[in-house]
Amino acid sequence: xxxxxxxxxxxxxxxxxxxxxxxxxxxxxxxxxxxxxxxxxxxxxxxxxxxxxxxxxxxxxxxxxxxxxxxxxxxxxxxxxxxxxxxxxxxxxxxxxxxxxxxxxxxxxxxxxxxxxxxxxxxxxxxxxxxxxxxxxxxxxxxxxxxxxxxxxxxxxxxxxxxxxxxxxxxxxxxxxxxxxxxxxxxxxxxxxxxxxxxxxxxxxxxxxxxxxxxxxxxxxxxxxxxxxxxxxxxxxxxxxxxxxxxxxxxxxxxxxxxxxxxxxxxxxxxxxxxxxxxxxxxxxxxxxxxxxxxxxxxxxxxxxxxxxxxxxxxxxxxxxxxxxxxxxxxxxxxxxxxxxxxxxxxxxxxxxxxxxxxxxxxxxxxxxxxxxxxxxxxxxx
Length: 382
Fold this sequence. Notes:
The protein is mostly helical. 68% of the residues lie in helices and 3% in strands. Strand 2 (102-108) and strand 3 form a beta hairpin.
């Protein structure tokens, strides 16, 4: 046992602890503290606040542990990560809990897990190691085809839950990872050349009244966003219209957290699920323009630190991990804020580190643990 501990100490000595990213730790602490306070203000129950604090505590411990275990050692088991991801997604299909027409959760002794949130991180980790292994063959038909197949399997399982929003997120992540891995610009141009007409055909099919590509609620959300003169659109846009009203009423400094203002959109219960998908609305109404800008800046700083770490990563695996995590945070935050401000159709994506959701928070903290880990293997740029 003493030899085991000696090996651990010797391994830790090889880490460049002077490169531990304390800036990133500060940004994470700030946005999580802000998130807990906004969640507490968004609902009358203390349950969400307490669970989020518990999730933050557990997530912080997991993040630190992962940061201190060489990511190259963890990713030796990349096929187990991939198969474990598939197993969780299959369990959702077989024994998952159904809420509001979607089967996305696994319940165990009162604890809910949403595997699709962890799938985002698992996909990044798997492809970071897989593409590193075949980096010299990244532009061959065999590796590209195999990558697409391995990506498509979990994608289909997530899409069938149904979870269109998460499907879009992991498609974006896959594109980022393939680009950073060095896929040829000729192949990218070819994909765009094929994707544009395919997208037009898909759009035409979606506009048909009897289309079967999207579920009814997904179709109504998409069409309702663009059509304002029908009953379905009015019902769908109700949430986003109220969100805009709430954010606008916050002014510069907001109405204050936990306020009892009679003219509060939140207090009037005009915002459904304010602690999750529309948490940015609560930030806007109660913390005002200053609060929304603070959240945007913190997200931008965390994303920047991910890409900064990627630029100093010692290998392609590290770069792919950091760019994947950074891209995930930035894209998901953009979509969440876009929905709250009615720039995008209504879709259910949490705001990273701010929205209530233990699966989302834990998965992101795992991802940040790997970013810290890569940072400890800092490589100076020449």
